[in-house]
């Protein structure tokens, strides 16, 4: 399953941030998708696996065919949700998660498999895999971000652009992630990003619909 070259705004959920305003993950996801977000990653690193599966299924059922839904880290959850008939496209994996080749083998050729890649060494490893193993790269962090305190040193827009140039021969689109602000959106698109992944900018907003719409407008240049 290949990713489109224009993904726009990619929402990554954060249960702690969304609860600041009492909306819950589903409320924020609905608001963001209503505003034009078309890709949602369900992320909750602290949830028991059964709770994460239930949340993933609920998100997928809530958005239907209006957005693509993937799960952060947990190939088992993505597989279980898909087998239960929910519209879950696949998984986004970090470098310490299940190897992407194993995830692809479990999920099948029609699934979405994303991978975080922040260094030339990550790209070298990706180049050794068969084409089609990975559909989408997540490159960042653009800026330091409290939503992922263990991220490597921030790359900045220029660093993301360097990784993007090195990744171009692999033919895999990428989204820029990690502390992405509205002011970053246009230069990241100019650097070749297929989209921008946003956590705090939407999840922590008092009005997630308005915040998501602002990112969507910034991406479209409106």
From TrEMBL:
Swiss-Prot/TrEMBL catalytic activity: 2-[(2R,5Z)-2-carboxy-4-methylthiazol-5(2H)-ylidene]ethyl phosphate + 4-amino-2-methyl-5-(diphosphooxymethyl)pyrimidine + 2 H(+) = thiamine phosphate + CO2 + diphosphate; 4-methyl-5-(2-phosphooxyethyl)-thiazole + 4-amino-2-methyl-5-(diphosphooxymethyl)pyrimidine + H(+) = thiamine phosphate + diphosphate; 2-(2-carboxy-4-methylthiazol-5-yl)ethyl phosphate + 4-amino-2-methyl-5-(diphosphooxymethyl)pyrimidine + 2 H(+) = thiamine phosphate + CO2 + diphosphate
Keywords per UniProt: Magnesium, Metal-binding, Thiamine biosynthesis, Transferase
Functional pathway: Cofactor biosynthesis; thiamine diphosphate biosynthesis; thiamine phosphate from 4-amino-2-methyl-5-diphosphomethylpyrimidine and 4-methyl-5-(2-phosphoethyl)-thiazole: step 1/1
Residues that coordinate or bind Mg(2+): 73, 97
SUPFAM superfamilies in the cross-refs: Thiamin phosphate synthase (SSF51391)
Cofactors: Mg(2+)
Enzyme Commission number(s): 2.5.1.3
Function: Condenses 4-methyl-5-(beta-hydroxyethyl)thiazole monophosphate (THZ-P) and 2-methyl-4-amino-5-hydroxymethyl pyrimidine pyrophosphate (HMP-PP) to form thiamine monophosphate (TMP).
Annotated protein name in UniProt: Thiamine-phosphate synthase
UniProt lineage: Bacteria, Bacillati, Actinomycetota, Actinomycetes, Micrococcales
């Amino acid at each position: 399953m290949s990713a489109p070259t224009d993904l726009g705004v990619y929402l990554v959920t954060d249960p702690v941030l969304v609860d600041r305003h009492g909306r819950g993950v589903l409320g924020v996801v609905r608001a963001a998708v209503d505003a034009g977000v078309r890709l949602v990653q369900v992320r909750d690193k602290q949830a028991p696996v059964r709770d994460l599966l239930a949340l993933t299924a609920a998100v997928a059922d809530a958005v239907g065919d209006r957005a693509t839904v993937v799960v952060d880290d947990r190939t088992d959850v993505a597989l279980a949700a898909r087998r239960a008939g929910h519209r879950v496209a696949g998984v986004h994996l970090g470098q310490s998660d299940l190897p992407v080749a194993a995830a692809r083998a479990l999920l099948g050729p029609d699934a979405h498999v994303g991978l975080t890649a922040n260094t030339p060494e990550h790209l070298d490893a990706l180049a050794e895999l068969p084409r089609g193993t990975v559909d989408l790269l997540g490159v960042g962090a653009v800026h330091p971000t409290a939503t992922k305190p263990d991220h490597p040193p921030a790359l900045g827009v220029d660093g993301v652009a360097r990784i993007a140039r090195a990744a171009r021969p692999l033919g895999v689109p990428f989204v820029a992630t990690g502390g992405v602000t509205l002011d970053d959106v246009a230069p990241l698109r100019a650097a070749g990003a297929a989209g921008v992944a946003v956590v705090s900018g939407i999840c922590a907003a008092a009005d997630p619909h308005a915040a998501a719409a602002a990112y969507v407008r910034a991406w479209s240049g409106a």
